[in-house]
């Protein structure tokens, strides 16, 4: 009986410990963080991706000053982080898009849509000042079933 109680207690403690497993995700295929933050944090089946701007992961420099080019670079950066964690754009459930100018909404939206096969995530878009004079920044949350 004691053995069963010990095994049950061990199972409960192990299960509770794994309920909130936190893992830092980092890849050289996306730009390194330019501040005190991680590219992404995975908690169990949920991945929280930091905002990405259009930095080239190799040079660390901003790409061309066109919204279409920057949006592609941002989505490729996010895709690299998703992939590193074993996720894809199909797993994205929510995104937040920050634009330096809402006049960029339509061309950004056209490029953004190319990365989602079906059932795009919930999304918000706001205008704000962005680091390094970026035209667009996007952050995401992804979840596995």
Verbal overview:
By secondary structure, the chain is an alpha+beta fold. The protein has three helices and six strands; from the N terminus they run H-E-E-E-H-E-H-E-E.
Write the layout of secondary structure elements.
Layout: H1 2-19, E1 22-25, E2 40-43, E3 46-52, H2 67-84, E4 92-99, H3 105-113, E5 122-127, E6 136-143
Parallel strand pairs: 4-5
Antiparallel strand pairs: 1-2, 2-3, 3-6, 4-6
Helix pairs in contact: 2-3
Helix content: 25-40%
N-to-C series of helices and strands: HEEEHEHEE
Domain unit count: 1
User: How large, in whole angstroms, is the Cα Rg?
Assistant: 19 Å
What oligomerization state is this entry in?
A: single chain
For this structure, what is the CATH homologous superfamily? RutC-like
What key phrases describe this protein's structure?
6 strands; 26% strand; single chain; alpha+beta; 60s Ribosomal Protein L30, Chain: A; 145 residues
Brief overview, please?
The protein has 145 residues and is α+β, with helices and mostly antiparallel strands.
